[in-house]
Design brief:
Strand content: 35-45%
Shape: globular
CATH topology: 2,3-Dihydroxybiphenyl 1,2-Dioxygenase, domain 1
Strand order of the largest sheet: 1-4-3-2
Radius of gyration: 15 Å
CATH superfamily: 2,3-Dihydroxybiphenyl 1,2-Dioxygenase, domain 1
Largest sheet: 4 strands, mixed
């Protein structure tokens, strides 16, 4: 049903839109699509991420139950993201690490927190069929 022209839509709260732009554009390399007084929309690795200005942001970054991110099909894309995070000294919560080592679901992961404590996880499965 979904094709390459469709985008998943993700919306998260942001306490400061300038901070969101700094993190997502200049930190992670997302492209800013639109900006309004109350929200900013990004091309986030091919999907649509909207940061809505809000006073209701998490007090601390907590991975579960709510987080979002990208499962990279190609190991080199995950490696490139990890290098970017390290070079730009972005705030990590966990990783890079290997999860479920020795099982069919073995994958590498890294979790970040944006300035509004939204948690973003990036991962790459050894078996690319498991990315979904």
């Amino acid at each position: 049903m979904r094709d390459t022209h469709d985008a998943c839509h993700i919306a998260v709260p942001a306490r400061d839109l300038d901070e969101a732009v700094e993190f997502y554009v200049f930190g992670l390399g997302a492209k800013m699509a639109r900006r309004y007084d109350d929200r900013v929309t990004f091309d986030f690795f091919g999907d649509q991420l909207v940061c809505h200005l809000s006073d209701d942001v998490p007090a601390e970054p907590v991975m579960y139950p709510r987080h979002f991110g990208v499962s990279f099909a190609r190991a080199e894309d995950f490696d490139r993201l990890v290098r970017l995070v390290e070079n730009r000294k972005l705030r990590t919560l966990a990783g890079p690490a290997v999860r479920f080592e020795g099982t069919a679901e073995q994958h590498r992961t890294i979790a970040l927190a944006d300035p509004s404590n939204n948690v973003i996880e990036f991962k790459n499965y050894d078996d690319p069929r498991l990315q979904y």
